[in-house]
Amino acid sequence: MATLTEPHAPTHVARPTYGEITRDVAATLGHPGRSYYVLLGIVLFVLACGIGALLYQIKLGLGVAGYQPPVMWAVYITDFVFWVGIAHCGTLISAILYLFRSAWRTAVYRTAEAMTVFAVMTAGLFPVVHLGRLWYAYWLFPYPNQRQLWPNFKSPLLWDVFAVSTYFTVSTLFLIVGLVPDVASIRDRAAGWRQKLYRITSLGWRGTDVQWRHYTRAYLYLAALATPLVLSVHSVVSWDFAMSIVPGWHTTIFAPYFVAGAIYSGCAMVVTLLVPLRSVFKLERYIHEEHFDNLGKVILLTGTIVGYAYFVEYFIAWYSGSSFEREAFWFRAFGSYWWATWTMIICNAFLSQLLWFPKIRRSIPSMFVISLFVNLGMWFERFVIIVVSLSHEFEPFAMDHYTPRWVDWTITAGSFAWFFMWFLLFAKNFPTVSLTEVKEIIPMPRKGAARS
Amino acid sequence: MTKAPGGVLAAYRHVDAAVDAIRRLKEMGQRDVTVYTPVPNHEIAQAVGHPASPVRVWTLVGGLTGCFTGFAMSLWMSYDYPVVVGGKPLGSVLPYVVIGFELTILFGALATIMGLIVHAVLGYRPAAYDPRFTDDHIGLFVPCPVERRPQVEQVLKSTGAVDVRVET
């Protein structure tokens, strides 16, 4: 090695000063340009289509979504697992990497964390969309009622209610707590109605010694609580499947397999969001190749775990000697859904291996393209696990082929629109780069021999 | 917000200068100095010398309460509405670990936030402020009676404050 460079210090950009950071981040707010509004318009139109499809489904029943025995869990549950999975990377970057004191996370964690909250908000819609009479969704919660009924706490579906609602609450709190000092800084520079908005949302923050003293502790404990939480949430989601006896679902590998898959797809979604974000809001100075390189490494690691899990699934299906397992996995690869299975295997297990090459990890266009394929592959992974397993259970006379209908596709598209709508609104009005944490990794100026 | 008491407000650019000033003021017997920083800083925290934040007690109590609530709720509800599922005992502790765990996290996080609000927002000490302190300056507010102000001002200026003003 010819030269040694300090890790995490990008050599090609000069370190910004505190004042520059405040100005650059404040400049992202308020005036995003025409492309932003065009995008928002498209998103709102697609969302309206999704809501229309949902109303149609409410009127006529779940049959319009192609639901018929044996496939009674289909695209909506696929979407649910997909969106919960997307959420996971945000907590990984904001909580787990915070505990590891990883410096590169500071520029991207706010985007990832906002993505978490909006992805859980999207995921939370699907168990409700999936209900025939969705106005009874509140029956899931244990509330005192006249019939003196309580929910069944032995059901993984109820664990899911607790896991996902806890996850939503905690990740929202975590996002808000992280935002407070940033919003205070923006408040001191804003004017008009925005200043009013920021004055309320900054909760009177001024950055006093007393405030920081409690704040740093609280943030640490929230991170420490969120870390086991994020691992538990997708484990609980995986038990929705693994606790039943359906061939292809009933395996002990599901929890780690789902958690790795969740972080894999989530990091890909972070890349998908960061690429347009940095150019639209001119954040190239703060979000650069190094961040994509590191995200690429996380994607490579988790993608390899996912690929290994695929291998183990097939191996155990063969090794178990259970004819139903063998039959289910043969059907996955060579049955009528072979295209979905091979999409998932190629996108997840093989495509991610390209990230061994630093050149690919550091090239933003190639990372963007890979991230899109990873998202596609992970959506198909959930589709394969859910639909393909259900359509080919034990009894041959009960097997059937399920095809998603236009209602499923429209509601799925609507969910993407819902997610991007929240993200776009957030990006315009709140700092998508944490100015406080970006400042924190730069040492405060000193009067004597200034440390560079 | 209640009106800040009179005193001297100073802005610093350099962290070591601010630390010097805090030390000097402490030696003078000045206790309730408010220090503003754009980011949390160890040196400043050390110079001010606070004990560990009581927020951790909130987290602990919240987490334990959540754990107890999770198990108590699922067990009590199982016996209150007894339906045997899958031939398992009515009160099956093992699956209820999930509920207990999730509520530990939920209550722990909510209690942490409550602790943060109680100590950092409601426990707010009125003091003069300048918007530069959330940007790139370190602020020091020293509440003191009129007769002591010249002495405090002198300390702040000699330690390298870029701006000192008297707040009445």
What can you see in these coordinates?
The complex is a heterodimer of chains A (452) and B (168). By secondary structure, chain A is mostly helical. Chain A has one domain: Formate dehydrogenase/DMSO reductase domain (Formate dehydrogenase/DMSO reductase fold, Up-down Bundle), CATH 1.20.1630. Chain A has 16 helices and no strands. The radius of gyration of chain A is 23 Å and the shape is globular. The two termini of chain A are 24 Å apart. Mean pLDDT of chain A is 90; it is low at 1-12. Chain B is an alpha+beta fold and 168 residues long. Chain B has two domains: 7-50 and 126-167, Alpha-Beta Plaits (2-Layer Sandwich), CATH 3.30.70; 55-122, no CATH class. Chain B has helices spanning 15-27, 42-48, 55-80, 93-122, 149-158, and strands at 7-12, 34-36, 138-143, 163-167. In chain B, helix 1 packs parallel to helix 2 and helix 3 packs antiparallel against helix 4. Chain B is rod-shaped. The two termini of chain B are 16 Å apart. The model of chain B has no long low-confidence stretch (mean pLDDT 89). Chains A and B meet through helix 1, helix 6, helix 8 and helix 16 of A and helix 1, strand 2, helix 2, helix 3 and helix 4 of B.
